[in-house]
Structures are given as structure tokens and as C-alpha cells.
Amino acid sequence: MPLFFRKRKPSEEARKRLEYQMCLAKEAGADDILDISKCELSEIPFGAFATCKVLQKKVLIVHTNHLTSLLPKSCSLLSLATIKVLDLHDNQLTALPDDLGQLTALQVLNVERNQLMQLPRSIGNLTQLQTLNVKDNKLKELPDTVGELRSLRTLNISGNEIQRLPQMLAHVRTLEMLSLDASAMVYPPREVCGAGTAAILQFLCKESGLEYYPPSQYLLPILEQDGIENSRDSPDGPTDRFSREELEWQVLRL
Questions:
Q1: 231 φ/ψ angles, rounded to the nearest 5 degrees
Q2: Nearest of 231, 254, 245, 252 to residue 58 by alpha carbon
Q3: Which of 53, 141, 153, 225 is the most exposed place for a label (fewest CB within 10 A)?
Q4: Angle between helices 46-55 and 12-26 in degrees, nearest 10
Q5: Over 50: is that where the pLDDT of 44 sits?
Q6: Measuring CA to CA, how many Å separate 53 from each of 58, 78, 81, 84, 127?
Q7: Which long-range contacts (CB under 8 A, 24 or more apart) does 144-148 make?
Q8: Which residues form a coiled coil (predicted)?
Q9: 3-class DSSP assignment, residue 218
Q10: Which DSSP helix (H) or strand (E) runs through 89?
Q11: pLDDT of res. 216
Q12: Using an 8 Å Cβ cutoff, are 110 and 135 in contact?
């Protein structure tokens, strides 16, 4: 039996796709997206981090690869400081960086179908995060810091081993859609979880001594902030392509 395993080299087709996508991202007039999905990557190349940092990319798509970690040793998470959409679904990630909370611009995080055992506590620092998809992993619990995600609108935790929700989730007043495995839940009780998102939040608010209000009363500041940021991105307002991209990640990927 060998003492170590050599990393599998990408196929010629995957290597050419990576080169093409990297070149495309650097061309004059390129959009805000770096898409290096389906490139048979075992780690994200240093050049991808450099491209995101220098060109201030907003969308990084790395799904359907062989990633076991997000960061190679020589790279810093701060290179992704401008990223708003990070798609890592269909990889082999067992953990996310402890300092994930440094990605303060992040609005959409998709890590569906990985091997995650837990989420870092620093996830609570992602105050602009609106969509979190951790479907089909190996999570047994959520950190109580998810209660600090005050912009979160969509949360998918189905396909995990989670039986209890943190009571602090009651403080996420903007949550519109919570997907979970109701039959597996212990807290809140399965009958509450089966009744939908509003019932779950009403239960958690009551447990926390908070008065429940529907998320529509809390979303206006977030939507207004989105409008301001999109106006900064373009003199004529938000670019149509990026708006469509964000909508697809928030709606279709869950």
C-alpha cells in the first residue's frame, strides 16, 4: 500500500478550459465573473486569487471540481474581498477557513454537496450574506453565530444530520425561506418545522422572549443598500447580466 497518493492531474480538456477561462477573465471589458468550474481542480490556482484581487471580481464560480480545501497555503482569503457570489457546490470540501468572516462583501454562498462537518464561527461576520446553501453535507449543528447574519433571506440546511436549530436564529429577522428535514428535527419539534419558515421563527422568537414580525418589515434597508451598491457598480445603475446572475444563484441553486 502506498504511503501517499499523488494528486490526479487534470485532463487536457480540463486544462484547456481553465486556461481559456483565466484568459477570458483578464480581457479588456471582461465582466465581474471568474468561472473555473468543471476544470478537475484539486485546489484553486494562485492565479485565480490574483485575478480576483487585481480585477476586483464579484462572482467566483468553482463548482464541480475536486477541491478539498478553499485556500492553498500561499493564498490569502483577503484576495477575495470583493467577491459577492461564491459557488463551491459539488466539491470535496471538509471544512471552510476559520477566517471566512473576512469576506464581508459576500451575499451568496453555495457549498451544496460537499463533505463539510461544521461551519466556522466567523460566518456570523458575513453581515451582507443573503443566501446560504449548505444542503447535502455532514453538518450536525449550526454555530449560534448564524444569528448574526442580519441580512440572511434564504437558508438551506437539508440533507445534513442537523436535529436542532440554534435559538439565536430568532435574531435573523430577514429570513424568508428555511429549508430543512422536518422529520429529523428535535428542536423546534418536527410538527413546528413541518409548518414552514414562519412557524419556525415564531417558535424561536417565543423561546427567546422576542416578538415575531414578518421579514417584510425588515427587508427594506437591505434592498435599499443593494440599490446603492449596484448604482456604484455602474453609472447607469446595475448591469443586467450581474443582476440576472445573482437572481439565479439565490433562486435556482436552492
A1: -65, -35
A2: 245
A3: 225
A4: 20
A5: yes
A6: 10, 8, 7, 13, 21
A7: 144/168, 145/121, 146/119, 146/172, 147/171, 147/172, 148/124
A8: none
A9: coil
A10: none
A11: 85
A12: no
Mean pLDDT value across residues 148-161: 97
Show the beta-strand stretches assigned E in 114-174: 131-133, 154-156
pLDDT digits (tens, 9 = 90+) for 66-123: 999 999 877 899 999 999 999 999 999 999 999 999 999 999 999 999 999 999 999 9
Q: Which domains does the chain have, with CATH numbers?
A: 12-251 (3.80.10.10)
Decide if 197 contacts 170 (C-beta within 8 A): no
94 to each of 3, 91, 181, 199, how far by Cα in Å? Answer: 21, 9, 21, 32
What's the helix, strand, coil split of the chain in %, to 5?
35, 10, 55
Q: Write the single-letter amino acid at 108.
A: V
Query: Most distant CA pair in the chain: distance in Å?
Result: 62
pLDDT in tens, 164-209: 999 999 999 999 999 999 999 999 999 999 999 999 999 999 999 9
Residue range 137-146, pLDDT digits in tens: 999 999 999 9
Decide if 86 contacts 52 (C-beta within 8 A): no
Q: In angstroms, rounded to a whole number, what is the distance separating the alpha carbons of residues 57 and 44? A: 15
CA dist., res. 239 & res. 243, Å (int) = 6
Q: Which amino acid is at 13?
A: E
Strand partners, 225: none
